[in-house]
Amino acid sequence: MNSPPKYNALSLFSGAGGMDIGVQDAGFDILAQIEIDEHCCNTLRAAGEREKRDSKIVESDITKYLRLHRDRPANTLRCGEIFYHPIEDRSLTPREYMRIHGYPDSYLLKGPIRSRTGTVKNLDQHRQVANSVLPPLAKALASKIFECLNLAISAMLDTLRGGLCRQALDLRGANPATYRRPR
What we know:
- About 40% of the residues lie in helices and about 15% in strands.
- By secondary structure, the protein is of the alpha/beta class.
- The strands form 2 sheets. A 3-stranded parallel β-sheet has the order 1-2-3, with helices on one face.
- The relative contact order is 0.07.
C-alpha cells in the first residue's frame, strides 16, 4: 500500500499560526512562516520549539510594494500595501483591486481613492476592498451552508413524515372507542 503524498507549504502572514495549525493537521509540512510582527514571530518560534518543528521563521514585510505578475496568482490584498500593475509603471486602481477580489464590474465603491487616514470613517477604496471577503469565496461558503441546511431540513421532514405514517398505520388497527387523540 502506498503512503499518501507529502506536500509542503509556505505560510505567508502567519500571525499567531492558526492557519498553519490547520494546514499541518491536514497533512502539510510548513517549510517557512513569514510574519512582520515581532510578537507573532516569538509566538511562532515558541510553538515550533514546543512541537519540535523545524520550519524557518522569517520576520519581514514581504509585500509593502509588490508588482503583480501576469503568469502568477495575485497576492492577498492587504491594507496599507501598494500593488503595482504587471506591465505599466503605476499602482492598481480600486477597480483592478475589485476584479482581483471577484467583485462584479457593476459594483461601485464610495469614498476617497487613496487615503492614509487610518480611521474607519475614512477608509479609502483600496482598503475597503482589501478588508472585504472575496465574493466568490463567500458564495462558495454560503452555497455549501445552504446545501447543508436543505439536507438537514429534508432529513427532519422525512423523519416527521415517517413518524406520522407510523402513527396513521397504528390508527387503522386501533379501537375507535378507546383511541385518544395525541396532545
